[in-house]
Amino acid sequence: MSTKPVVVVLHNENRPSPDALAPVTDRAEVRFTQADGLADAMDGADVVFAYDFLSTALADAWHAAGSVEWVHIAAAGVDPLMTPEVRASDVVITNSRGVFDDAIAEYVLAQVLSFAKDLPRSLRLQDEARWQHRESERVAGTRALVVGTGPIGRAVARLLRAAGLEVSGSGRRERTGDPDFGDVSATEDLHEALGQADWVVAIAPLTDQTAGMFDTDAFAAMQPHARFINVGRGELVVTDDLVAALRSEQVAGAALDVVDPEPLPADHALWTLPDVMITPHNSGDFVGWRDALVDLFAENFVRWVDGRPLDNVVDTSLGYVPTTGS
């Protein structure tokens, strides 16, 4: 390139670390903007780095994206970007696959153990200074179904297997002999698979096909003692149906790192239902995660400037990065 490319960094109150972004600022004109200035910032820009990965501002500003060649989002899920206009364009979309895999897997294992060992109740009893003996559950030999067989789902499966759980997957197509999941059932057979699981982990990408996949019928298919863990997107779940399933004890408990809506209103029923653990969409947010996201973008930017293929290219017809066996 004869002139420096223009990179727009969409951010909220948090901005990328200057040190982490140095490989980009050294080789590009960088424009920092929040949502209200995105359209102006994109005038003549080549690249958009959606560091504010929950922002939907790109949809309203897309009319100004005439020169944009590449959009990168600082998240594994790309659903905030997947408008009809983006899908119909030639703009390359990449995501931050790989940054959160192990941290989210650790979170899932922590929630499984927390349920089995009744840790929330132990804390409540401690607050009341009550010495109340109880028995706990073993997790070894129990069955987990991981719904979503991409890289994060695989990391979850490997860690749960290491803890002694029997793991299977639910993905686009049925297969056997998978190195991480063993058996994978097809999405159309989800309800049958749900009926075999003690633990159900939702980590599927949010697409037109997966939105609302956990509804009344799905929860009715689960065993009454099963626990539901959602680390994917809140919109995978019909929230009112989950509340009803928990109230009727069709589902024994839920650990929700993502909900619909977010943030969860203070008066929402999920806050006070027993055996529900809610965390504020932070299952992957380990110490240093923000710089890790910028590092990944910076490495991809260098590839782009050098004319090499980009990593983590999203198939916009699918809404995620396709992988072998996913």
Automatic annotation (TrEMBL):
One of its GO terms (molecular function) is NAD binding. Residues 18-314 form the D-isomer specific 2-hydroxyacid dehydrogenase catalytic domain. It holds the Pfam family 2-Hacid_dh_C. Transmembrane segments: none annotated. Keywords: NAD, Oxidoreductase. Residues 110-282 form the D-isomer specific 2-hydroxyacid dehydrogenase NAD-binding domain. It comes from the Bacteria. The keyword NAD applies. Belongs to the D-isomer specific 2-hydroxyacid dehydrogenase family. This is Phosphoglycerate dehydrogenase-like enzyme.
